[in-house]
Amino acid sequence: AQSVTQLDSHVSVSEGTPVLLRCNYSSSYSPSLFWYVQHPNKGLQLLLKYTSAATLVKGINGFEAEFKKSETSFHLTKPSAHMSDAAEYFCVVSDDMRFGAGTRLTVKP
Amino acid sequence: KAGVTQTPRYLIKTRGQQVTLSCSPISGHRSVSWYQQTPGQGLQFLFEYFSETQRNKGNFPGRFSGRQFSNSRSEMNVSTLELGDSALYLCASSLRVQGYVYGYTFGSGTRLTVV
After folding, report:
1. In the 8-state DSSP scheme, what is residue A81?
2. What is the rounded average pLDDT for all residues in chain B?
3. Torsions phi, psi of A83, nearest 5?
4. How far, in Å, CA of B26 to CA of B88, rounded?
5. What pLDDT digit, counting tens, does each position of A18-32 carry?
6. For B64-100, how does the pLDDT look when each residue is reduced to its tens digit (9 = 90+)?
7. Residues of B at the A interface (Cβ-Cβ below 8 Å)?
8. What is the Cα–Cα distance from A33 to B104, expressed in whole angstroms?
């Protein structure tokens, strides 16, 4: 069975500082992993996906994530937060699209 | 190309009624998944249809059902509505080839309010 755990329900950063949103997964096989973003009153948008090619995946808007099999992690990072990054972020595992509980990112001016 | 289209965008229903939501996937996508999003429970998987067959099902009661047509359009039906069914219902379409998923594209959702 697959599952995904987002370790922080809420992350708050200052504009211009790095962002780290943590995600751990469990899977009996090598999964595909996704990060989605949902802005207020908007639909879900794909940020990036890992599908067993390069372990460092670059996505849109400067986000990237690194797949670490030994740690069963797929953390999302961005070097410098922007106000427009404030949103809900979801980590998703593979074939049956199980969503994590989400992490709300707040960006302070 | 057109995105995923969900209709209606908003719906208000009374307890005990039933409701049908519609989802038209991206052209060429044969997989359609449905999700319920609520503040308390987050995003929960309802079911997935592929080529008119239910491929996967989440942990929802039998009041929640769906179907997919030959043109890949999908409908979701909820019978005997309860107040707790108030939620944003999201549909996602994907290109699934030999079991491999090439990512999901979501619609804007249908916001259902049960009064």
Report:
1. -
2. 92
3. -55, -35
4. 20
5. 999 999 998 777 778
6. 999 999 999 999 999 999 999 999 999 999 887 766 6
7. 33, 35, 42-45, 48, 56, 90, 92, 99, 101, 103-109
8. 11
Tokens for B77? 């039906």
Count how many Cα atoms sit within 13 Å of the Cα of residue A2 in the half-sphere of its side chain: 18
Contact B103 A46 (CB under 8 A): yes
Q: Which candidate in A97, A98, A103, A104 is best for mutational testing of the B interface (most B CBs within 10 A)?
A: A97
Residues B84/A37/B45/B6 CA torsion (nearest 10 deg): 80
CA distance to partner chain A, nearest, from residue B45 (Å): 7
Which residue, A85, A81, A102, is CA-closest to A23?
A102
Q: In this structure, are residues A43 and A27 in contact, taking their beta carbons and an 8 Å threshold?
A: no
Q: Quote the CA–CA distance of A57 and A47 in Å, as a whole number.
A: 10
The Cα B104–Cα B93 span in angstroms is 6
The amino acid present at A27, given as its one-letter code, is S
Three-state secondary structure string covering B59-102:
CCCCCEEEEECCCCCEEEEECCCCHHHCEEEEEEEEEEECCEEE
Tokens of A4: 């995904």
